[in-house]
Amino acid sequence: MVEQTTKVLLIESDPNVIAAVHTAMTAGNESAFSLNQKNKLEDGLEFLERQTCDVILVCLALPDVQGLSTIARLHDAAPRTPIIVLSHDNDDSAAVSAVQAGAQDFLIHKEIDHALASAIRHALERAALLEELRDARDELERRVEERTLELRRRIEEINAGRERMRALSQRLVEVQEAERRHLARELHDEIGQLLTGLKLRLALCQQLSLEESAEPLNQAQQAVNELLKRVREMSLNLRPSVLDDLGLLAALNWHIERFTAQTGVAVKFVHRGLDNRRFVTGTETAAFRVVQESLTNVARHAGVFEASVFLTVNETSLQVRVEDRGQGFDPGNVSGAHASTGLAGMSERLMLLGGTLDIEAAPGNGVRINACLPL
Ligand SMILES: Nc1ncnc2c1ncn2[C@@H]1O[C@H](COP(=O)(O)OP(=O)(O)OP(=O)(O)O)[C@@H](O)[C@H]1O
Ligand SMILES: [Mg+2]
Asked: Which residues line ligand 1 (CB under 6 A)?
């Protein structure tokens, strides 16, 4: 085993002490120690700025400094290097003060020849232990900091999740309100108007003879037929019973046929893996609404008479794609607008089910709506 040389810095001006240290160090193994000696503290500090050493031996009565401040200044210059104080007096209280000030050990002059080597060894062992302790403490602090950061991140995530849920429920209420407004308007404008006309005609019939009332009665009958048709349509728009009774595929076939008849927009419908499969109500409704709203948008905004609907099912998800090659739009311009609820409502509906809605659109470049619903 190769013995390492211990680098010792001796700060001492008394020639007798310097000689004693020299002798003590060369007594056993010549190469065990390498010694650098300085007379004054300033010289010692200057040395420490340029070089390192393993242990410092210092006198507390130097030509330039006296007392315990010597230890503090050395400690500042080399915080991890053990300091052994060499003293003329055998003074216990001075020894205690020196250790309290940061010295590792206290040696009186007449102990130097027989005790210096072991004092240095002990000081080095203690310094190594301290170093290990320091490393362990640093590691612990690092881990605590890591955990704290991790916890903080989690709390932020939870808070963000809460905020999202809050915003979602608010949007949901808004969407519901918009649907109610739409329904109220339709009841008032369409149904209300037809009923008023019917009432007037029936009142007129009361004043007329049986013969004269034939024409207004005929008109009243037509108004009732129209009313029946409107109410049926409203109910279908609210929720087609075929969706509950026969499932998604049947409901979409029914809706697309009706949509084409009403709007003149031809729809290419391609589906894979559906085979009359049933899904939970929320999923079927969401998929149906995506197709319904997207096709309505094609008829209202795209300016073309062709659209495509693709439906794909695999083990984990149900994917819906509706696309047209119409005039398109800039999605960045829509998201903030409060007037429209179609796209936003769709997106929220999907989010609540853990799905996603992706809108690919650009002015002049058509629109592609991609919805993915987890199964
Ligand atoms: N297929 C499309 N082609 C062109 N523009 C579209 C298309 N789909 C949507 N847009 C544009 O995006 C806007 C937002 O659509 P959204 O469905 O959210 O609202 P809306 O259809 O105007 O009203 P509603 O709330 O009744 O659905 C539309 O006003 C339209 O400008
Ligand atoms: Mg719309």
From this structure: 297-298, 300-302, 324, 326-329, 334, 340-344, 367
